[in-house]
Amino acid sequence: MTLSTSETRGDRTGEPVLSLTGIDKRFGAVQALTDVGIEVHAGEVVALVGDNGAGKSTLVKIIAGVYQADAGTISVGGTQAHIDDPSQAQELGIATVFQDLALCDNLDVVANLFLGQEKHTATVLNEVAMETEAWRLLRSLSAKIPSVRIPIASLSGGQRQTVAIARSLVGDPQVVLLDEPTAALGVAQTAEVLNLVERLRERGLGVILVSHNMADVQAVADRIYVLRLGRNAAEFKVEEATTEQLVAAITGASDNVVASRRRRTEQGGQSVVQAENPEDPEDGGDHV
Question: Across-strand partners of 193?
Answer without folding.
Answer: none
